[in-house]
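Researcher: We're teaching a course module on how sequence relates to structure. For the next exercise, students receive a sequence and then see the predicted structure as tokens, so they can try to spot secondary structure elements on their own. Here is the exercise chain.
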Amino acid sequence: MRHLYTRGPCFAARIVPVLLTLFGAATTAAQNSTPAAPDSAYFHSYHVVPRDTVSQEVYDGWKQFALDCARCHGDWGVGTSFAPALVESVKPGGTIPTQELFIQTVCAGRADKGMPAWCALGLDISKMQTMHAYLVERASGRMGPGRPAVRD
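Model: And here is the predicted structure for the students to work with:
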């Protein structure tokens, strides 16, 4: 006597009904089951909010800073060999401690130091405000270097 699964001339004729029966039972069981309600404590223990979660304004400031300023002032505002650390400059004891002075400096530039006048290049004041918000977050220590996450 040959076993049901032994390959021979009628192998397909014997195996196809078995497979259809198994597949049909699995499909019926899947359709009849209802999904379990998610356990919120379990979910939150594995999906914690990132440490550097920031407002939309600060996130937009990070993007704008990366686009316009990072090439000279460093990726995270920590300065380079030819441009100052802006995370130090925007601190209360720094060289540009207020938002007004920051916007004035960015808008007018510092031609003697090689910094362009960004208002003449078309940068909006609102974008300068978001960059200042980003730098203040970095300067305060509430946000570390790297890409921040947007707070919902």
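Model: If you want an answer key for the exercise: The longest strand covers residues 53-54. The domain at 53-150 is CATH 1.10.760.10 (Cytochrome Bc1 Complex; Chain D, domain 2).
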